[in-house]
Amino acid sequence: MEPEQQVEIQLGHLCNNRCVFCVSGQRTAMGEAHPVAADPVVAKLEEARARGIDKVTLLGGEPTLQPEFLAIVRRAVALGYREIVVFTNGVKTARASFVDEILATGGNFTFRLSFQGATARAHERTTKKLGSFGRLVESLANLHARRQRITVNMCVVRSNQDSVEAFPALLLPYGVSQLHLDMVRPLDAGVRTEAELREMMPRYSDLVPALERMIAGFPPGFDVNLGNLPYCVAQDLAEHIHHDGEKTYTVAVDHDDALSEPWDKYETKRRDKRKPASCSDCVYEPRCSGVFETYERFYGVSELVPVRTLPVVDRGLASLRELAGRAADPRIGAGLLRLHGAGPFAELTVRGARLREDGQAAAIDLEHTSGVRVRLAFAVQGARLAGRYALDRPAPSLSGPGLTAGVRAAMTALLAE
Ligand SMILES: C[S@@+](CC[C@H](N)C(=O)[O-])C[C@H]1O[C@@H](n2cnc3c(N)ncnc32)[C@H](O)[C@@H]1O
Fold first, then answer.
1. How far apart are CA 329 and CA 382, in angstroms?
2. How far is the CA of 335 from the centre of ligand 1 (A)?
3. Residue to substitute in 27, 114, 292 for testing ligand 1 pocket (most ligand atoms within 8 angstroms of CB)
4. Which atom in ligand 1 lies closest to the alpha carbon of residue 23?
């Protein structure tokens, strides 16, 4: 059982939106974004497959605008990628025939749609593109009608921060399985003046009431991720906060639109973050990377207050039983029940569990005492159950044998048919 890894490939910067926080729209507007050739991308796909990576995210710019987009998807399918994530602004996928062309490649897709606001007003104030919200909603309908896996991403800026509580009503009817809200990252925003950065960057504590109302609007267990929000400003939402994701190698485009060597995405994304010394006493310290330097310049760090005690409540373990009762496939139900019976798992606490809509797969989130999060995923594959796990970052040396022992015990329970 190998931890999950993925490769992200940036297909140029060309984009048809002009998001206030994004380098790609800005470079397109300046005439600095170009179509990318298929061959170098295919070479990166081949390299990653040769290293055993079988999940790829295609992003950009807007990947679907690239003339070679479908050819690249076809190659990813032929190379045996188990999952192809199409990260898109949903403008082109509003055309059902385009979705059908993507699906005709035979790949197993996740569509990651970028809503830059949960209302038309918030989204279009942010993308600067009239009509872009309606196209996204059409994309939701097209993808849902074709039973595709849909996740949603948003970059939190001032122009969309208040809209978030409209997300549950917007997304739930279309079976969206995950919502990720990422705090704006100044280093990815392109060339901006201080005034523009100030205009877009919200103060984190101001976001909390709307985020709380949004999360209350989703059913328990719905996968909401809040990226880069410091834990101490929203302790009640801590179980949703992540400062890193699954191990991701990113192949980006450089100034000449050439593809870079793969680099570790989360190591790079932490480089402009900082924490005051007082954070060393905080129970969230191992998993919190602090705030962006630009944020500190604008707002200071007085909001960051060390948290002394971390309530460890095994709320999730009981939920496994309830979820087992709802599993359409009896093997998934039985796996969840075995997991319920076998817990607790050494130093791991069950934080939540979810079923995939078709009932053929489930994911269970656990948390180690060091703060490392572990996601177990298992699914019906042919006649048997298959499983894998992913850590949200490399295990710290201090985690000792408890982490490994816990993961092993949980995976054994899940898969012991
Ligand atoms: C760069 S776009 C590329 C794919 C596609 N054009 C789309 O809109 O989904 C991917 C995601 O990056 C996020 N993003 C771009 N710039 C960002 C920034 N400065 N901070 C945080 N997220 C950002 C956007 O929210 C978007 O969901």
1. 12
2. 36
3. 114
4. 16
- Tokens 């939701």 sit at which residue? 140
Measured in whole angstroms, the distance separating CA 417 from the mean position of its chain's CA atoms is: 31
The tens digit of pLDDT for each residue in 74-130 reads 999 999 999 999 999 999 999 999 999 999 999 999 999 999 999 999 999 999 999
Which domains are present in the chain?
A: 5-274 (3.20.20.70), 315-415 (no CATH)
Number of DSSP helices (H) and strands (E) in the chain, helices first: 14, 16
Beta carbons within 8 Å of 245's beta carbon, 6+ residues apart: 227, 265, 266, 392
Pick the closest to residue 367 from 309, 304, 410, 324 (CA basis).
Answer: 410
* Ligand 1 pocket, CB under 6 A: 15, 21-22, 24, 59-62, 87-89, 114, 153-155, 182, 184-185, 188-189
CA 248–ligand 1 middle distance (angstroms): 16
- The Cα–Cα gap between 372 and 344 comes to 16
Q: Residue 239: pLDDT band by 50, 70, 90 thresholds? A: confident
* Dist. CA 232–CA 303, nearest whole Å: 8
* Choice from 14, 87, 200 to test ligand 1 binding pocket (greatest atom count within 8 A of CB): 87
- Look over the chain and give the mean of its residue pLDDT values, rounded to a whole number: 89
